[in-house]
Amino acid sequence: MTTPLVTPAGGGSGSAAAPEDVTVIEVAGVSKRFVIHKDKSLKERVVNAARSRRHREDFWALRDVDLSIQAGSTVGLIGPNGAGKSTLLKTIGGILQPSSGTVRRRGRLAALLELGAGFHPDLTGRENVYLNASILGLSTAQTDGFFDEIVAFSGIEEFIDTQVKFYSSGMYVRLAFSVAVHVDPDVLLVDEVLAVGDEPFQRKCMDRIRRFQADGRTIVLVTHALDQVVDVCDRAVVLEHGVIAFDGAPADATRYLRGEYVAQDEANLEAARERAAETEEAPRTAGARVVSVRVLDREGYQLQEASSGDPVTFEVTLDVPSRSDDLVVGVGLATLSGQGLWGTNTKLMGRRFSVDAGRSTVRLDVAALHVGTGQYEVHGAVAAWDGPEVDRLARGQIITVDGPEASAGILGIEPRTVVVEHA
Ligand SMILES: Nc1ncnc2c1ncn2[C@@H]1O[C@H](COP(=O)(O)OP(=O)(O)OP(=O)(O)O)[C@@H](O)[C@H]1O
């Protein structure tokens, strides 16, 4: 059975934007259980044939989730793989029924969910557009009205009479997104499938999403593009293991999640170190640790504040278990939400060196710190010359930068003159 791209949930008008204090989606105590069937080995199946052929296991993809979404908001659902984001989005869209709890929706809801959902593979693009529209309750004449626009936006005119089973993922998403946004929904649910579209199409989709926002419509977006969440959303919800771990401002949510990813990376690094220590061929860099990273002025004093364009020195302090000439030391800057901005390391700088066992400091001079007004995280890392990173201090220091007065943004680019010529 095909899943409708658009559901007439709540029977909304599909046109007027709802006032902002109206809750359009109310998820209350929602849990979703999947039953996983694990095939046993052939031997087990033969031995236990009389009892059961399959082994069943319950898996809770969502646990007691509460979420209210107001009209006119753009909410990002973020979190690690398998956290339950898509399951929650499908539950909101009415495509999955919760095992317990309730979901209430208001207004017409359009959903762009996983690849394969929404379209019937044996039907052509044209037939699928009409099928989806009829599922929504639109007449053929109404569908005729927006058909050309859908096809033009999708950019796949040539293939509109081809069965969708022959579509590439990108073509599929182009048509699916186009249908979803042209049927005048109050609420748009978008799963990360947009990422399979090429860059120009993704830009077009983002433009359309911004237009939706300007119209006061509601958008729920699942994505792994954390910078996009900060850019587009006014609220972000972090899901982890099927529960809401954070709900708030996008910059705070992405910082929280990046912190979790760093903690996970550190746990992985630790496990890799332990594994390396157990093998005889453990690299000599295995136990290297970044103790601190600081930004200094040329006199060697630590800077908490700097001006854009200042010469600075990054100082990384290391603990190394044994003498090594195999180390790469790196430093970098990121925004407070964790978006990486810049980095360098001693290998990129063509500088190989050796350090003795124990504590050492490595200083990297930078001619000018060209960043705009704001606060930045400074990180330090150590890696093997031809191997993986062995340790990283994600937030060694925060530095406040006073950028060029006449410019805004992350880059510290100083504007000089304005020339106006009259023709
Ligand atoms: N139909 C299903 N049957 C069994 N398990 C499922 C089903 N759908 C999802 N799951 C499981 O539920 C968990 C949550 O899946 P979901 O797709 O919602 O995660 P996600 O956060 O969207 O992940 P990703 O970022 O990888 O897309 C996963 O462990 C997944 O394997």
Automatic annotation (TrEMBL):
SMART domains, per the entry: AAA (SM00382)
One Gene Ontology MF term: ATP binding
InterPro entries for this protein: AAA+_ATPase (IPR003593), ABC_transporter-like_ATP-bd (IPR003439), ABC_transpr_TagH-like (IPR015860), Bact_Polysacc_Export_ATP-bd (IPR050683), P-loop_NTPase (IPR027417), Wzt_C (IPR029439)
Residue span(s) of domain ABC transporter: 44-266
Pfam families from the UniProt entry: ABC_tran (PF00005), Wzt_C (PF14524)
Family annotation (SUPFAM superfamilies): P-loop containing nucleoside triphosphate hydrolases
Alphabetized PROSITE patterns for the sequence: ABC_TRANSPORTER_2 (PS50893)
Keywords: ATP-binding, Nucleotide-binding, Transport
Similarity field: Belongs to the ABC transporter superfamily.
The name this protein goes by in its record: ABC transporter ATP-binding protein
